[in-house]
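Record pair follows.
FIRST:
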Amino acid sequence: MPESRSAATDARRAVPRTDAVLADPRLVAAAARLGGRLVKDAVTAAQARCRAGALEPGAVADAALAALPEAATSLHRVVNATGVVVHTNLGRAPLSAAAREAVALAAGPTDVELDLATGRRGPRGAGALAALAAAVPDAGAVHVVNNGAAALALVTLGLAAGRNVVLARGEMVEIGDGFRIPELLESVGATLREVGTTNRVRLADYAAAVDERTAFVLKVHPSNFVVSGFTSAVPVRALAGLPVPVVADIGSGLLAPHPLLPGEPDAATTLREGADLVTASGDKLLGGPQAGLLLGRADLVQALRRHPFARALRVDKLTLAALEATLTGPPPPVRAALETDPATLLRRAEAIAALLADVGAVARTSVAAVGGGGAPGVELPSAAVTLPVPFAAALRRGRPAVVGRVERDRLLLDLRTVPAEQDEALLAAVRAAAATLAGREDRAVPTTAPGHPGS
């Protein structure tokens, strides 16, 4: 017993003091970047491992440094290898380099609501609104709120509180995470008038439901499912003949037609067909930050912009900066992922698989998806690097984390959603995961794949 107590005392004495570890120049620099609490917590955890005999005293500072996050946030960087272009669980649309630069600029003091020429207060987010108006010239006016559901809620509260909204039964959709369009409309004071049946609705159904209490007819694009067979729906151009405004929720944020997405409604076409207002999301097919877009008749948009509830839905300067850069800058990653040539993807997959053949990697063709509740049923030809299933968990735990999908007892790393400049990071991540699975140190990683644009 005395020997055991002595050994425990010696182990505690061997653990380096907290102040001594924190004085390590690397940890001092980390504290300046991340904050003292995160660094001290990492040191405390490393000391506990040392006290338990799992870490040598001289390695405490190194272990604390290795455990620190790359930024002062609990979020982790992820390589999206799922093949889902707009992945809701991964934050939907990745921002372009131009948008990220704009966010960094906007993080400091900016003229978001100041006219630098006069020194007086200016219109908030004028640049972002002008860019949106230029992108959709068919809109008489535009407004931006904090997400797509907020845009529809503002329209309903502003135009239909205490009144009726006419909506087809087949368009009473759930938009995700248990939220439903009918409940959203009712929560801001509207009463729903359902028309038609689940699979079929006619113009006469709408016309019969419109009366003096009708605020507007709502057309909702069922963006996350497809109904086929014995069905019928009424297009916006037909609804525009009714004696009340038509509001169209197109969902995905597609501003103009796209040849790969012929069944996806876009804002420009919907307005030309007679919609008085269009609502959409900014973080889906538009490829920008989370935002709700409201476009259409100038009198309606301006009235909604001045509605008291609009203040509660106001977007911040970071969103405005990212949205403007998305609209005016180079094509965002979502557009690039949609339009990548499948043959190019297969060449990349073959090159990466060749470098990872020793860990069971194989290249194959695959099928990607648009995601984000957009373009259901649209298949995007793609290519993937496949690996044994145990790699899935190991890659998710890596830094950066890599998230793929499992099909037929293989993990697929679908390259349609992995930009080519991330190929080297993907290689390194797989090598690190292989080392973890094998319980050995990582081996040297080939940094450039044959045929890669950087070779």
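SECOND:
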Amino acid sequence: MNKTTSQLPVAVIGAGPIGLSAAVHLLDQGYTPIVFEAGDQAGANLARWGHVRMFSPWAYNVDAAAATLLQQQGWNHPLASDFPTGQELLAQYVTPLASHPAIAPHLQLNTQVQSVSRLNHDVLRTGGRNESPFVLRVTGPDGERDVVAQAVIDASGTYQTPNWLGTHGIPALGENAAADAIAYGVPNILGAARDQYANQSVLVVGGGHSAFNALQDLVVLAEQHEGMRVLWGVRNASVTNVVRSPANDELQERRRLEVRIQELLEQGRIEVFTELEIEAIERHNGQLMVRSGSRTLPPVDRIIAATGFRPNLSLLAEVRTSLDPATQSPTRLAPLIDPNQHSCGSVPEHGLAELSHPEPGLFILGIKSYGRAPTFLLRTGYKQVASVVTALGSNAMYAAAQASTTAAAPSPATSSCQG
């Protein structure tokens, strides 16, 4: 990297917990961050699931360097053993951090990064590539513009790109046409979305903890509205493995939710449909009919697709990445996050070596670095940030980039996590 390039800012995409952590660490290391957030507030994605209680306690969810910065302004660390909701994490940590006078000047809200490239280099052009700075095409309140940066940290998350209901990995036939009656993720069933679900028949699709959250809220709502019907569709042949966390699980909120769903199943409060492979969704008489092979499920008014998320990689099309074809995570990270082998808390330590791409200075961090694997914890992301920022501009960064194209492929993702 030449002297002129080294004086440029480091671009951070996304102002969630990981993006803000990156800004803190960059400032500590003498870099100038520029943080782009597509939403109208820091943690905009987080706000969308603010009603959901996290599985990980406060001790896992605060970056130590950020806490030190906040405490200089009189901030008090929440009780480490408490489990925050998304809204509590936003209000008590993310918003104060984004508002801190050391961070706020570097934050640009309502600014969407459309693409990342190298200055005067498309993805095919090699000569002089590593000496050329990055260029980001961004769209904000004043229109579109290009921003030049010495490095790029993509911490934009995955919440904007949910997986489809269709069994083939693409939308089911009729899925897009029924979009007005389908919610992706975990809607606020007992809050802002209550009127959409009261007195309705609702099908929840998905075998992970996001589905569990939706199911428990629907059952609570059904206790107040006798006409409701709560259905649950999963790909598995049975739902006998709902309680899959050990009794001494370090994430006790996760186990509590599993036990609650098991109780509701035993009470007959949830109708279960197994071996569900959704091929088509059709409308009849104002209701949705879900077709799976030769079966058609009972008609429902609404569907909740708790089917996980995938990274949006389109903005990185003009830079050189090394991604596992199954998980869509960095190639050398993929075997370490295989959810067939690892759950929350058991993923091995990893950093610069596993997160590097053939493009020196480009990093995908946070939950987006896990691609479609759902075993991410915020404390893991903070460790990623520390490793990467410490190595920026060093020979280690370039060596890691050169080695980033070789790794073993993992098994596909099947389990879920949150936090």
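COMMENT: The radius of gyration is 22 Å.
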